[in-house]
Amino acid sequence: MTMIELAFAKPVENLTFAYISDAHIQHIRGAKFVNNRDRGLVRAVAETNLTTPKPDIVTFGGDLAQLGTRAELDHGAEMLGRLNGKVHCVMGEHDYYDGPGEYWSKLFGPQYYSFDHKGVHFVVLSSILTYDDWTFNRWPTPQQRMLEKAGLDNPNGSPFMVGDKQRDWLRKELAKVKKDTPIVVFSHSPLQKINKGWNFWTEDAEQVQGLLAPFDKVNVIYGRVHQIQYDQIGNISFNSVMATAWPWPYPQRYAQAEQYLPKATIPMNRADPFFERDATGWQMIDVNSGRVALSSNLDNNKSRTVAFDPNAGHPGDKQLQSIALEPNRTQY
Ligand SMILES: [Fe+2]
User: Fold this and answer.
1) N or C terminus: fewer CB in 10 A for the chain?
2) How remote is the CA of residue 126 from the centroid of ligand 1, in Å?
3) Residue 134 alpha carbon to ligand 1 centre in Å
4) Which is nearest to 283 in space by CA: 308, 304, 262, 307?
5) What are the C-alpha distances in Å from 172 to residues 138, 161, 175, 176, 211?
């Protein structure tokens, strides 16, 4: 769960929004669902309803379901229905590839859209699309397609992308927005290239970043990775949010191929893989400055704060250790 605070000088008003992601509700049979996944989402919904101040906006960041079935989406929708107020939903790949996306849209509406709230322009993207040939011709059944997409490191997978059609829409959409209007983008996959093997990756990330680059303050909030990551690329600040389902380990420990965590990210202490709620909890993201500022309050972990250090020119965590940014890291 994540609370995100936006504090601006007028005419933009302060606002907060809550962001819950990656519940992976999984159907077993009949009325049975994987209990731990249900409990993670139920807890997030209850805690979100209790937060003060009451969030202006509540978002669910994708992967509501595990295999995208109607039973999973219905059950997840029922739980999300207990949130106070309207919920803005983001499409995850686990919600999409059975349909693809049809039943999800019936429940939650359009797969990409925008809205304005208190002077901030919000954009919701469906970043988990891939090549039409892979989606529509490759697999004998929708269920097979879903299973191939649901695997974390399946070599039969195909990279996520926003795609031409949606980027065209985004270009036209952003043409109407003033350059000093704060922009917040919700996407399921990171709109940057982190790890291709695990699809912590968006194939056309640079093109999307290019559309966002002319604006003064842009924050991209994403799910998918089930771990805390943050980064700053020019004026675009990136924050991942944790999953209510389970934490993923960091990819570099398991792969030989070249890949990395976002350079600004300081790895969390992930000492107890047998503790089911390890690396889940609350993040508070302050996007007032347009730069990364993140406080984490995780079960079984020390509370930590990472904030943009103007002298160093990058985010830092003073409570822990000096961060070893690579010398070729020049985009701050
Ligand atoms: Fe997920």
Assistant:
1) C
2) 14
3) 20
4) 304
5) 32, 18, 5, 7, 10
Question: Could you tell me the pTM of the whole model?
Answer: 0.86
By the CB criterion, residues less than 5 angstroms from ion ligand 1 are 22, 63
Q: How far is the CA of 186 from the centre of ligand 1 (A)?
A: 15
From ligand 1's centre to the CA of 162, what distance in Å?
17
Instruction: Please tell me the distance between residue 40's alpha carbon and the centre of ligand 1 in angstroms.
Output: 13
Structure tokens at 266: 């300081």
